[in-house]
Structures are given as structure tokens and as C-alpha cells.
């Protein structure tokens, strides 16, 4: 199969730049779905893999091109894996406006008296050749760590300032971007996905 372009089922510029760099060696161009007029997909599911699949199918359906989608979030051990798929809206459950800073604030408040700080950032990438592809490619990346007691560092976004990585003795937001990307949940998932595409599609 000749693959030259893949639609990225996201309009997040940060995500696009991160993934474009990783897909460059395959000679494949990633195109943001917004540039092709693809409407946002519904994400009604409770798992990352089902939401990512719904987004990828929607983009493939509207463009006739292969599509890739990512669904990611924070899974906190003490909360049974939540907020999970609701990560982006976490703060709104506690009366705060949606946003990264408020998410961090709400999480630290909810975990004030929680001793078990274990958590993982999880990224699930799903790629389909067509909307009806019976064999979607699925790659999962996981970055385990602990929720820090207070934010530290100025890089990254989301929960990076409170995601403490024991192997580095720092939060993701304190690490240089290239170190973070090499060890992040999205970085791990993207590297797996590049291998899967090379092996199965090219």
C-alpha cells in the first residue's frame, strides 16, 4: 500500500508538531483534520482506545485517506484509574473553568490527603487505512510516575508540572523537551506506531 498522507484526527498544533517529527523518516506527511474540513468526532466512550478509534474512523470517513488519532490522559492509582478519558475536563467537575492550570490545582486539592501518589500518563494511538478497516493499528505508551505535592518546572503542558518521574528525580515540566519527548507516553506510543506502519502498511 502506498501511503503518502495520513490525516491526524486532532487540531492540536503541539501534537501535530510532535508526531510530524516522528513520522518524517517514513516519508509520510501528517495533515491536520481541520485543514481538510473534518468535523470533530463524538467521543462517548470510557476507554482511550475506543475514543481514538472513533476519531480515526471519523477522519478517514470524511477524507478517504488513512487516519491516525490519539486519546490520552492521566490515570491516578488512588482514583481507580480516573480521570482517564475525562482528563481534559477534570477541573470542571470541581467548579473550575476548563484549563491545564485549573486541572493541576484541582488534582492537588483532591490528593491533599492521599498517601498513594502513583499515577501514569497514558497515550493510545490508533491508525486505520479506511473507516471500515478490520485491523486498526494500536499503540499504547505509558509514562508511570508519582503526583508531586506541588508544581515544578516550566516546560510541557497539561499535568507535566506535577508528574514526577522517579528515574529522573524531576517532573516532566523540569526536563528538557527532547528528554521528555523521548520518555513521554506520547513519545513511546508514536515510536511503536511508526514501527507498526512500517511493518504492516509500507
Topology, please?
Elements: E1 5-8, H1 13-23, E2 29-32, H2 48-63, E3 67-76, H3 100-110, E4 118-128, E5 137-147, E6 163-165, E7 170-171, H4 177-183, H5 185-200
Parallel strand pairs: 1-2, 1-3
Antiparallel strand pairs: 3-4, 4-5, 5-6, 6-7
Helix pairs in contact: 1-5, 4-5
Organism: Ramlibacter monticola
GO molecular function: dITP diphosphatase activity; ITP diphosphatase activity; metal ion binding; nucleotide binding; ribonucleoside triphosphate phosphatase activity; XTP diphosphatase activity
InterPro entries: dITP/XTP_pyrophosphatase, ITPase-like_fam, RdgB/HAM1
In brief:
Helix content is 30%, strand content 22%. It is of the alpha/beta class. It has a 7-stranded mixed sheet.
Describe it:
- Its cofactor is Mg(2+).
- The active site is at 71 (proton acceptor).
- Mg(2+) binds at residues 42, 71.
- Keywords: Hydrolase, Magnesium, Metal-binding, Nucleotide metabolism, Nucleotide-binding.
- With 202 residues, the protein is α/β, with parallel strands linked by helices.
- It has a single domain, classed as Alpha-Beta Complex (Maf protein), CATH 3.90.950.10.
- It is 30% helix and 22% strand.
- It has five helices and seven strands.
- The protein has helices at residues 13-23, 48-63, 100-110, 177-183, 185-200; strands at residues 5-8, 29-32, 67-76, 118-128, 137-147, 163-165, 170-171.
- A seven-stranded mixed beta sheet has the order 2-1-3-4-5-6-7.
- Strand 6 and strand 7 form a beta hairpin.
- The longest helix is centred in the first third of the chain and has 16 residues, at 48-63.
